[in-house]
C-alpha cells in the first residue's frame, strides 16, 4: 500500500508541474484554482447549498496531507450550475474537480428534482472524474465539514482510503459518479449508496440507500447490504456469526440462480420462484459448527432478508429482474418491464453448499 501511495503521489507531483508549465503561457494560473477533494451538496427550500472542501495550493501534489491544510468554502444558488459559477465569480478562482474524491449528498437529495438536474449538468460539463465516490449523509453539512479538523487526512482522502482498505467487498461494489450516470441512462440495476453519519468525530456508514431501476427504495442496514453484495458476486469474504460462541469466515463465494414459472390452476395466478444456489468455503474462527449448521444458518438468513426487503422496501436485493431476458425469457415475456408486478409474485428458494476447511 505504501509503494502504491508513493507512486500515486509522485504521479500527482509530475501532473501538477505539467499543469503549471502549460498554464504559464496562458489560461488559468494554478494559483487561481481551487481543488476540492470532497463536495457536500444539500437542497433546501429550492436552493442548492454546496460546501467545497478544497486543498491549499501547496498541498495539491500531496493528497494524503494533513486535514488541517483544507479550506471549507460555501456557495448557494437555484441550480447546481449557477452555484458553481457563482462560487468561481465571487472567489475569483476556477474550480478544478479532477482531484475530487467524494461527492456527499445530504439526506433527501435523491428524491428531489435537483438530483437528476445535477447528473445532467455533470454529464454535459464533464468536470468530475467518473470514479468519484458517491455518498449520502444523515449528518448536517456543518458536521461533515468539521471532520477535516478531526481527521488525520482530508475527508475526501479518508473516504478513498476506506474503499482501498475494504476487505470484504470487491471494488465494483462501490457507487461512483460514473455508476450513477450509467444507471440514470439505463435504469437496469441496483445500487446501494452508503449513508454517512458523524460519530465521535468520525464518518461512519450506518446504512445504505437502495436505488433500484433508478428509483429510491428506502434504506437497508449493513447486514442486509452484505447479503446483496453476496448475491451480486461482489463479496471476497464474509464473517458469519452463528451464535456468541460460533463464528466462521466464508470465502470463494459463488452464486448461481435459475427461475421457475409456476401457475396455480385454481386461482390462475402466476408466481416466479428464484432458486438461488450459493457455494463457499468456510473456515472456523471460533466453535465447531458443522457444515450443515452453517448452510442452514446462511440459507435462513438470505431468505429472511430478501423477503423482508421486498415487504418493507418493495426492493429485490437479488437484483433478479435484470437477468430475466437472458436466463428466463418466458418470465421476461410475461412481465416485461412491469418490475413492480414481478416483485409481488416473486418467491425465493435458497440452497447453500459449504466446504469446511480443517
UniProtKB/TrEMBL annotation:
GO terms for biological process: spore germination. One of its GO terms (cellular component) is membrane. Residues 28-197 form the Spore germination protein N-terminal domain. PANTHER family: SPORE GERMINATION PROTEIN B3 (PTHR35789:SF1). This is Spore germination protein N-terminal domain-containing protein. It comes from Eubacterium plexicaudatum ASF492.
